[in-house]
Amino acid sequence: MARWIKITFSLLVAFIIAFSLSACGNVASKDKKPLEKVRVAEVTRSVFYTPLYVALAKGYFKDEGLDIQLKTTWGGDKTMTTLLSNGADIGLVGSETSIYVYKQAATDPVINFAQLTATDGTFLVSRKKIDHFSWDQLKGSTFLGQRKGGMPQMVSEYVLKKHGIDPHKDLKLIQNVDFANIGNAFTSGTGDFVQLFEPTASIFEKEGKGHIVASFGTESGEVPYTTFMAKQSYLKSHEQAAEKFVRALYRANQWIEKTDPNTIAKTVQPYFKDTKTTILASSIERYRKQGSFSKNLILSKQGWKTIQEIMMEAGELNKPVDYNKLVNTKIVKHALK
């Protein structure tokens, strides 16, 4: 009898403890603030944007209280349209698009508040293997480039001119192929050279479809190539959310800096299900080595000057836009104090 009472008492105590813990858990979950939803539109899905995917995969945004809803809008014009029509809160796209919008006398300009990539992300891929490449080998060739007015194409023209090549006279320049179809066009026989992002460039090289001979990112130097931007009205009313967003990205950058490429590749693999981990790792390391991932997330005055020089060189801008009108560095500086 005594033993039965002892067992019953033990079970009762266990039940009370379990109930108490459950109740405490319910209180904690009620007290915990719900995550703030932030809609992000990325211009394309690219290994070039690895810090963003790391921050998502490792839960850094959630740690800051943010629920990031990411969608790919496939193109600078579509991304900007999505942002301007309130289909997204933040856009990840080339900083030149904010200048195009400003030039159209926008009443609510789009502001660059954090820089993700600090170089061009494309590579020059040759159809034939070239042991000793020099830029003058492009003269007389057919070059499958990117969309006119887009940053990849403007940077490529800037680099070609830097090496004494007139892209509109010294070679046959093809610019009428959609971004998503450029790789397919090259494998189908169009062009002697093509401008490609990773991991496509590495995949082509591994499969013998092409050979990487140069990096436009290395040749062009520091450029605020891809930035996070939002309408001025959004940043005014959601400044704290923007700062939290930046802190998560910065944490991802720090992790990338001290982590081996294979581990990084495995972390972002869910965002590139059709790409082998080994290819992802080599692509990430290629970008990391050439300094493509912006370490401090700040779009510098020099970078802003360079991008406008590139735009003017390409005939897409006739007058510079003041740095302070379209760039906000306070958000990054406050977030990283």
Task: Explain this structure.
The chain has two domains: 36-119 and 223-335, Periplasmic binding protein-like II (D-Maltodextrin-Binding Protein, domain 2), CATH 3.40.190; 122-220, Periplasmic binding protein-like II (D-Maltodextrin-Binding Protein, domain 2, 3-Layer(aba) Sandwich), CATH 3.40.190.10. The strands form two sheets. A five-stranded mixed beta sheet has the order 2-1-3-10-4, with helices on both faces. A five-stranded mixed beta sheet has the order 7-6-8-5-9. α6 (151-162) links the parallel β6 (142-144) and β7. α2 crosses α11 and α12 crosses α13 (277-289). It is built from 16 helices and ten strands. The protein is globular. With 337 residues, the chain is of the alpha/beta class.
Overall 3D geometry?
globular
* DSSP strand count: 10
Kindly report the spatial arrangement of strands forming the biggest sheet. 2-1-3-10-4
CATH class of the largest domain equals: Alpha Beta
The helix count comes to: 16
Low-confidence stretches: 1-30
Average pLDDT figure? 91
Largest sheet: 5 strands, mixed
- How many distinct folded domains? 2
User: Strand share of the residues?
Assistant: 15-25%
The whole-angstrom Rg is: 24 Å
User: What structural class is derived from the secondary structure elements?
Assistant: alpha/beta
